[in-house]
């Protein structure tokens, strides 16, 4: 499925996720139980996140994406490692808590946090491995940009 061909579908998903988040927040405001309220608000937050992800797919499909600067590469590379370490520590803390706590209500909440920490860790590792590694432009890339990929094939501007 080519993402560019399905922009309208993704726009609909953005709207659906946002409406879903609003309804869940409204429901959570009417519930007094702290665990149920927290879970509903957490799901609402995830729906907002999903809307952001779908919006990013739309932007990737319809707009030019700027290159990441050398400063951004350096900053991302340094910061991502710290966040990967933090997520790893939080995975360990929540794993230990799950082994110690017997109350099923608390376990439900801690398990949800643990699952998120595992996902976050995986996403950050993927960013480190796939996005923050610099792409070195080689001579062949340069010549392709000047000749093959340019509408003017090396001549000054047409």
Summary tags:
158 residues, single chain, mainly alpha, 2 domains, flat
Strand content: under 5%
Please mark out the parts with pLDDT under 50 across 5 or more consecutive residues, or reply none: none
Order of helices and strands: HHHHH
What oligomeric state best describes the polypeptide chains here?
single chain
| Count of all domains | 2
> Roughly how many Å apart are the termini?
36 Å
Helix count from the secondary structure assignment = 5
Radius of gyration: 22 Å
Structural class: mainly alpha
Helix content: over 70%
**Number of strand elements:** 0
Mean pLDDT: 87
* Overall 3D form: flat
The largest β sheet comes out as: none
Give a brief rundown of this model.
The longest helix is centred in the middle third of the chain and has 31 residues, at about 70-100. The chain has 2 domains: about 1-65; about 70-158.
Commentary on this structure:
This protein is an all-alpha fold. The chain has two domains: 1-65; 68-158. The protein has five helices and no strands. Helix 3 (70-100) packs antiparallel against helix 4. The longest helix is centred in the middle third of the chain and has 31 residues, at 70-100. The protein is flat, with a radius of gyration of 22 Å.
Topology diagram in text:
Elements: H1 7-30, H2 34-62, H3 70-100, H4 104-130, H5 139-148
């Amino acid at each position: 499925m080519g993402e560019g061909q399905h922009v309208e579908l993704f726009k609909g998903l953005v709207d659906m996720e946002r409406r879903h988040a609003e309804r869940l927040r409204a429901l959570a405001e009417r519930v007094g139980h702290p665990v149920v309220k927290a879970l509903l608000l957490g799901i609402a937050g995830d729906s907002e996140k999903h809307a952001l992800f779908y919006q990013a797919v739309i932007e990737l499909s319809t707009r030019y994406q700027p290159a990441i600067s050398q400063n951004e590469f350096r900053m991302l590379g340094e910061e991502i490692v710290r966040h990967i370490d933090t997520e790893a520590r939080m995975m360990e803390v929540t794993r230990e808590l799950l082994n110690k706590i017997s109350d099923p209500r608390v376990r439900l909440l801690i398990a949800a946090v643990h699952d998120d920490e595992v996902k976050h860790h995986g996403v950050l590792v993927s960013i480190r491995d796939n996005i923050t590694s610099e792409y070195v432009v080689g001579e062949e890339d340069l010549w392709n940009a000047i000749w093959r990929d340019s509408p003017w094939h090396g001549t000054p501007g047409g």
